[in-house]
Each structure stands twice: as structure tokens, then as C-alpha cells.
Amino acid sequence: MTGRIYADDNFGVYHIEDEYDLDFYHQVQSESVWKKCNACGQSVKLRPDYGICNSCAEILERGGDPYA
């Protein structure tokens, strides 16, 4: 399997190199539901126990405020 790039609202960008990574990506997608991000208000596909999308999580990790 050659490397592929996938993206989603849970973890951002996946660099898929093997079948295990692809299986994990598909598992995350199957568990995800459409909901509104608590920070930016966008409709995103997240795991049920997640409250904010990856884009907002990255802003928080860098010290920013995605709620502004």
C-alpha cells in the first residue's frame, strides 16, 4: 500500500501507510456522528464523546481561543 492522505474532523490529517492505519481511520469514521462544534459552531462529523473539531483543538493547543 502506498501512502495516502485522509482528513477528518476528529484528528485532522492522517498519513495512511498501512492497512492498520486505514482500518483505524475507517473505524473512527464509522463511530462519528454529525454534530455542531462547541467552539466554532460548524457542522462536523465527530466521535460522540468529542465536543470540538480538530481545527479548534489545534488552536487551543497553540494557545489561541477558538471560541472568540
Describe this protein's structure.
The protein is α+β, with helices and mostly antiparallel strands. The chain has helices spanning 19-31, 54-61, and strands spanning 4-8, 12-16, 33-36, 43-46. It has one domain (4-61). The chain is 31% helix and 26% strand. The strands form 2 sheets. The protein has a two-stranded antiparallel ribbon with strand order 1-2.
Distance between the termini: 42 Å
Strand order of the largest sheet: 1-2
Quaternary state of this entry equals single chain
Helix content, binned percent:
25-40%
Which geometry do the CA atoms define?
globular
Write down the Rg.
Answer: 13 Å
Number of strands: 4
The number of domains is: 1
Flag low-confidence runs. Answer: none
Mean pLDDT: 93
Largest sheet: 2 strands, antiparallel
Number of helices: 2
Strand proportion: 25-35%
Order of helices and strands: EEHEEH
What is the structural class?
alpha+beta
Summary of the model, kept short:
31% of the residues lie in helices and 26% in strands. By secondary structure, it is α+β, with helices and mostly antiparallel strands. It has one domain (4-61).
List the main descriptive attributes of the protein structure presented here.
68 residues, alpha+beta, two-stranded antiparallel ribbon, two-stranded antiparallel sheet, 2 helices, globular
